[in-house]
Every structure is written in structure tokens, then in C-alpha cells.
């Protein structure tokens, strides 16, 4: 079996962006809850715990379901745009690469062995701002940065596999010759549902206990190998390339 394409999630896989993003999300989520007369309030950490891996639109849909209220289309779109601007400002000021990610990207880019793409739930402007801030944009062609919030006719969010299926179609690859690197449950599930070989990265989680817990959860979802540090990336790829081929023509929606 030959792997010819690698899809990388962005937030907390390539770039340490989730904490910064959820700080901004918490402010807007609390504003919405206050307007709805709902007393609950979120911190960024609480939002991460409940919604990591989802984009803001998906998060707001989950909040509406949880608290039984409805945002009108125009109002929701206004909050989505406001969140995007707030998060991008934070990322452009403070974003850092995940430890070891840039070094491994440099190696795999120099090898010319694989096509490389970013496949994210986050808005395209946010993803582009993230990888540009940490100087990773040079590893990805401009049209190979995919966003579930921006690249699809109907915006969605992982764990919906739609963005992975779209990316596969765009780069003209099958799932069986593609590897995804994901850190979250929703992201991993999206890749697994698209029948893509998946590396579960847990290095951005704080502490050995949390990393072990996430390793177990991602494995239960169907990822093929766990990567605790980016220095393990080459060995993870070799492991997947040693596995027998599978039928990659069908996604498990």
C-alpha cells in the first residue's frame, strides 16, 4: 500500500490555537445566553471541554439544542463573523506552533513523497491566519487549505465527514492512499467516517493523564495509531504504510 496524501487538522494539531479561540468564543456564547435570559455562563476551558473540534457555527447549534432556543439565520451569521474576527486577532497576536509540528512538516515537505493539505472545521480565514502566523503556510498550496465552515456549499463541522470527502475529491485521491492527523474526537470521527487512515495526535493535551484518556477515546473511535509527540510522526506513517490495503471507495456516514 502506498500513501500519497496527508491531511492535517489545524487547531491544536499544527497550531496551538484552541485555547486562544475559545477565549473569544466564550465571550460571544455568554453574550448570546444573556440575551436569551439563560443564567449559565462559560469559560474558554469549559467550552473546550464540551465542544473541542467543532467550529463556532457547530458550537452555536449545540448550544441552541442544549438550551432550547433558536437564533435567526441573520443573527447567527452575524455572530459567526464576529467570532471569526475576534479569533483571528488573537491568533495573529499570540499563536504558536504545536511542539515539533513545523520541524516534521519541513521534513515531509522536503521529501516530496506526499501531497499535503490542511483540512479543518474552522473558517478559512482563521486557518490561513493560524498557519501564516507560525510560518507553516509555505508547506501548503493556497488551494489545499480546506474549511468545513467555508469550503462547502453547505457549511458544516466535523464530525460530519463532508469536508474530508470534499478534500479527497478535490485532490483526486482515494481514502486508502490518504492519512489524516487529528487531535479531537469530532475530527477523528470525521476522518474515520470518510474511511481515511487516521493518526490520533494527543501531544497538545496537558498532562499524561489527559493524554492517556484521549488516546483511549480516539482509539475507541477507530484511529489507527496514537502519536504523543510529533517526533513520532515518521514511525506512525511507516506503521500505516505497513498495513494491508483496505477498500477505500466507501465512507461510513
From TrEMBL:
Its cofactor is Mg(2+). The keyword Nucleus does not apply. PANTHER family: 6-PHOSPHOGLUCONATE PHOSPHATASE, HEXITOL PHOSPHATASE B. InterPro entries: Beta-PGM-like, HAD-like_sf, HAD-SF_hydro_IA, HAD_2, HAD_sf, PGP-like_dom2. The keyword Magnesium applies. This is HAD superfamily hydrolase. GO terms for molecular function: metal ion binding; phosphatase activity. Keywords: Carbohydrate metabolism, Magnesium, Metal-binding. It comes from Penicillium malachiteum. Gene3D superfamilies: HAD superfamily/HAD-like, Putative phosphatase, domain 2.
